[in-house]
Amino acid sequence: MSNAEVLSLTEPHIQDVVPCCPPLTERPMNAEEAERAARMFKALGDPVRLRLFSAVASHESGEACVCDISDVGVSQPTVSHHLKKLKEAGLLTSERRGTWVYYRVEPSVLAAMGKLLTTTPAAA
């Protein structure tokens, strides 16, 4: 019997996603919201991390083995470090399968980030 987790591959409806913070044009962020948003943006502020995040997010199966995304011009230990930082920021999740680790971006993370940067209808 397999202990594999069944994952939903359906995209959430963007209107159903609760973002980390209100859209920037809605109101000023409080300290907690700013801290959460800053962690995400800080993690994506490094070009290597942004490339890794993009590689995972755009991978055809919705998840990528570390072996498929490690060609970003840095050593394997550095790739692992950057992937760890993306996980700590809540941008990636991972699952070990045998000797490989597979990474995925939760669809709700992308939707929430999009909502944060979207103008509200009143501000549009």
TrEMBL record:
Keywords recorded for this protein, A-Z: DNA-binding, Transcription, Transcription regulation
Residues of the HTH arsR-type domain: 29-124
Keyword check for RNA-binding: no
Domain of life of the native organism: Bacteria
Keyword flag Ligase: no
SUPFAM superfamilies the UniProt entry points to: Winged helix' DNA-binding domain
Annotated InterPro entries: ArsR-like_HTH, HTH_ArsR_DNA-bd_dom, HTH_MetalResp_TranReg, WH-like_DNA-bd_sf, WH_DNA-bd_sf
A Pfam family annotated for this UniProt entry: HTH_5
PANTHER family documented for this protein: ARSENICAL RESISTANCE OPERON REPRESSOR, TRANSCRIPTIONAL REGULATOR, ARSR FAMILY
Protein name (Swiss-Prot/TrEMBL): Metalloregulator ArsR/SmtB family transcription factor
